[in-house]
Amino acid sequence: MSLQIFNTLTRTKEVFTPLEDNKVKMYVCGMTVYDYCHLGHARVLVSFDVIVRFLRSQGYDVTYVRNITDIDDKILNRANENGESFTALTERFIDAMHEDEERLSVKKPDLEPKATAHIVEIISMIQQLIDNGFAYAAENGDVYYSVDKFPTYGQLSKKNPEELLAGARIDVADAKKDPRDFALWKSAKSGEVSWDSPWGEGRPGWHIECSAMSTCCLGDTFDIHGGGPDLPFPHHENEIAQSEGATGKKYVNYWMHAGAIRVNKEKMSKSLGNFFTIRDVLERYPAEVVRYFLVSSHYRSQVDYSEESLKEAQSALSRLYTSLRDVDVAATSEAEPALAEEYRNRFQKAMNDDFNTPVALAVMFDLVKELNRAKANGDDYVSSLAILLRELGEVLGVLQLDAEEFLKSSGGFSGDAISESDIDALIVDRINARAAKDWAESDRIRDYLKDEGVILDDRKEGTVWRRG
RNA sequence: GGCGCGAUAGCAAAGCGGUUAUGCACUGGAUUGCAAAUCCACGUAGGCCGGUUCGACUCCGGCUCGCGCCUCCA
């Protein structure tokens, strides 16, 4: 039962064999920080977070690098529009991104290199490419990669170099020898931020920073490189050309790409303007519900973002948390029943199959049923099943809150939600009414609370409530 | 136009050549003052047309439709 990963390079699931036994070196393309992160970014963030969590749970020693691209055209344009320095802009959005990922329970990568902190490595890689005959400096101070010199160009995106020639963008301002060539170094226009280089003042092109930073952090060859659905071409294709041109070695063994988030069957994207920022969505749904929504489909599939999907995620998560309610999840003395191992194995098997989180969740729901039965029967292994459920949830980054806390907070996002003290007071009133068998009053209170989004649950031990 | 991906029950979403996915919703039962939650029972779904096979949702071919990349985008 070994781990299999779908490799974009071969378009097949392959058995995962790390370069070094038990170690995983992984690089994921992070944000270009000129705006707030949207749900598409959240999907990449959460998907690779789950992947790292699972790998670590399996005993792998993972080095996870996720870069920040903090210098590029869009950043400069935006800073210009805002009349602020580009560093002020990028710092603001880096902070915002960190807030977003923390709220989504995304664990920090081990390294988070920034392009502007790696200009030296970028320049030296460009120089290496020139020395190796893969790049050329143009008259105007730009440096270009000569696509024609890299015979396997197109291997990742399965593009034919000849056909790319026909569709390549032709920009009159640049000095390319071939329209497919792309900029490694862009000469500075007057007044623009720039760094000194052998080719004059300038700044790195898009693509080269990832080659430089990944190689710098992880070595010439590493195990996994990931990113969003729009990155295989041209970004990752260009990274391969750059890194392999510079080092002469294979760049990456396994390429992984997340699927797109869609809105009304269309890809959510900046250019279409149909995106929801993470913070937009977090104003309307608890962070864990958003995370559950992301994890409930396979990372490679396209998913539609909709109100219904989020509501469904909320219901599903409620079922999970309800099963954990009133169970002592700190009791460690209980012996785990034999059947627990079966769930653990099924979960592991699902995740080993290219990180199949929907199946992993199905296993968790089966475990919930088992747990609920055990609770009803008063079995002596209730706690150990609940602990197992949370243990599995931790790999997906869910179920780590106190069940009571989650269930009492999950709907309360409108500022005018009824307070806990008011709820408790009404419940006391209702208990009195019920004691007097005043069912009309009892039901009136319950209906009132229901309108306030509070659902009551009368149990032998007393009345409990949740927001739904 | 080129390259690639997908089409599963009311909705969402998986595995699998023959035996229950799972969640939400629905129906019946248990439970409850009535509910809620929970448990039990219940769903012959797999775009269309052919082929392979004893047997296909699952493999092969064709078709239709949808989506992604080919330009900045996660």
How does this model look, in words?
By secondary structure, the protein is α/β, with parallel strands linked by helices. The chain has three domains: 4-262, Rossmann fold (3-Layer(aba) Sandwich), CATH 3.40.50.620; 307-406, Anticodon-binding domain of a subclass of class I aminoacyl-tRNA synthetases (Four Helix Bundle (Hemerythrin (Met), subunit A)), CATH 1.20.120.640; 420-467. 46% of the residues lie in helices and 16% in strands. Strands 4-3-9-10 form a four-stranded parallel β-sheet, sandwiched between helices. Helix 1 (39-57) links the parallel strand 3 and strand 4 (61-69). The radius of gyration is 26 Å and the shape is elongated. The mean pLDDT is 93. It binds one RNA strand of 74 nucleotides through strand 3, helix 1, helix 5, helix 7 and strand 12.
Number of helices: 16
Radius of gyration: 26 Å
- C-alpha geometry: elongated
Q: Spans with pLDDT under 50 lasting ≥5 residues? A: none
Total beta strand runs: 15
Q: What portion of the residues fall into strands of 2 or more residues?
A: 15-25%
Topology (elements, then pairings):
Elements: E1 4-7, E2 12-15, E3 23-32, H1 39-57, E4 61-69, H2 73-82, H3 86-103, H4 119-131, E5 135-137, E6 143-145, H5 161-167, E7 182-187, E8 202-204, H6 208-218, E9 222-227, H7 232-247, E10 252-257, E11 261-263, E12 266-267, H8 278-282, H9 287-295, E13 303-304, H10 307-324, H11 338-352, H12 357-377, H13 382-396, H14 403-409, H15 420-435, H16 439-451, E14 454-459, E15 462-467
Parallel strand pairs: 3-4, 3-9, 9-10, 11-13
Antiparallel strand pairs: 1-2, 5-6, 6-7, 7-8, 11-12, 14-15
This protein binds one RNA strand of 74 nucleotides through β3, α1, α5, α7 and β12.
